[in-house]
Amino acid sequence: MTRGRKSLLSGMKLSYTCEWSNCCITYNNENLLKYHQLQHFRELCEQPSQGSRLPVCGICNASLNITDVDGIERHSFFHSWVNQLKAIGKHILEINDWPVCLSDPVSCNLIPELPTKFECGWEYCDFKTNDVCVFITHVSRHPEVLFSYAFCLYFLYNFLIIIYCTSISIS
């Protein structure tokens, strides 16, 4: 997004409700929800083993490998990101007086397999994260940074040319 231009979503009062089974805590900040849900996952991993059964996600019932801490974090953060998208969508429906979404709540909570960290594909960038929201924000800022870097190099180059030309004409 262009710097200095406000998003149409800025100023919206959103609420984010934890979708973990038997939990209905609501936050007005997506980061609070993100770390609240992550705590559910951590508590799940700390529970004693139930034989050969893998623990399951309290939101989508997916089996979780408790030895893959990064995978559990990615899974948790992806749920938080989906929750944020649903909160924005719900708010947009409400302010426009549109009908509610009829998608079933189970299928909209399914998380894709995420075997590795989200990795930036920009040249010379080694950024990796388990948080899809942080990843999207990071990647979306590359063009802005690239433009400002090129802009600075353009003026630096022209400034050096001006100094060089001035020094030649003075002598």
TrEMBL record:
<keyword id="KW-0472">Membrane</keyword>
<dbReference type="InterPro" id="IPR013087">
    <property type="entry name" value="Znf_C2H2_type"/>
</dbReference>
<protein>
    <submittedName>
        <fullName>C2H2-type domain-containing protein</fullName>
    </submittedName>
</protein>
<keyword id="KW-1133">Transmembrane helix</keyword>
<keyword id="KW-0812">Transmembrane</keyword>
<feature type="transmembrane region" description="Helical">
    <location>
        <begin position="146"/>
        <end position="170"/>
    </location>
</feature>
<feature type="domain" description="C2H2-type">
    <location>
        <begin position="18"/>
        <end position="40"/>
    </location>
</feature>
